[in-house]
Specification:
single chain, alpha+beta, two-stranded antiparallel sheet, 7 helices, 37% helix, globular
C-alpha cells in the first residue's frame, strides 16, 4: 500500500488518531470539577454527551470537505451535538481565524439551511484571550481550534440551568457580561 501523501498529514504530521487523542484529552480536562467553577466541571455538559454516546467528533479540513458536508455527516449520525476539530494545514492557519467572525458565519449558514436551522455553533480558539471562573484560561489548553454545534433550544436550556447553580459565583463582571449571564453577585 503506498504512503498517504494527503495535504493535512504532509503539513500537520499528525495522524487522525493523534489529533483525536489530543482533543479527547482536552475534553477530559473540561469535565473535571474546578474550584473556580464552584467545584463543577469547567464544561458540565460534555461528559453526559460522551457517556450517552451523543457527541459526534470529527476533524474538519476545509480544503477537503465543506462545513455543510461535515454537518450532513453529523446529522446522519443521529447524535445530538457535534465537535469539529480544526488542525492547521497548508491551507489554513486557525490562529489567524477570528473566532467571533467564523462563529457568526457558521451560525448564519446553519440558520439559513432548513435542515440545520435549529442548530447553533460555538467556536473555541486556544489563541483568543478568553477567561472564565475569575480568570481561568479555559480555551488555552485546547490543542486546536474547535467548532461545537448543538441544538439552539438545548444550548439555551443548558445556559439557564447553569445560572440556577453556583457555577458562575467566581466569574468577574466582564466574564458574566460576555457570557450573557445575569450578575449573580
Amino acid at each position: 500500500m503506498p504512503f498517504d501523501f494527503s495535504i493535512p498529514y504532509l503539513f500537520n504530521m499528525e495522524s487522525r488518531e493523534q489529533i483525536l487523542d489530543k482533543a479527547y484529552e482536552y475534553l477530559s480536562w473540561l469535565t473535571q470539577p474546578h474550584e473556580s467553577f464552584s467545584n463543577i466541571a469547567v464544561c458540565p455538559f460534555i461528559e453526559p454527551e460522551i457517556k450517552r454516546e451523543q457527541l459526534y467528533i470529527d476533524i474538519w479540513y476545509p480544503s477537503q470537505k465543506s462545513f455543510m458536508k461535515c454537518m450532513e455527516d453529523f446529522y446522519a449520525s443521529s447524535k445530538s451535538s457535534a465537535l469539529f476539530v480544526c488542525p492547521n494545514t497548508s491551507d489554513i492557519n486557525w490562529e489567524q481565524v477570528e473566532r467571533s467572525k467564523i462563529q457568526a458565519q457558521i451560525t448564519s449558514l446553519l440558520k439559513n439551511t432548513p435542515m440545520f436551522s435549529d442548530y447553533k455553533s460555538l467556536c473555541f480558539s486556544p489563541w483568543e484571550h478568553f477567561t472564565a471562573g475569575g480568570g481561568i484560561s479555559t480555551r488555552k489548553p485546547s490543542p486546536y481550534f474547535m467548532i461545537n454545534v448543538a441544538n439552539r433550544t438545548h444550548l439555551s436550556q443548558s445556559h439557564k440551568q447553569l445560572q440556577k447553580s453556583a457555577y458562575f459565583a467566581n466569574f468577574t463582571h466582564d466574564e458574566l457580561n460576555r457570557l450573557k449571564v445575569k450578575d449573580t453577585k
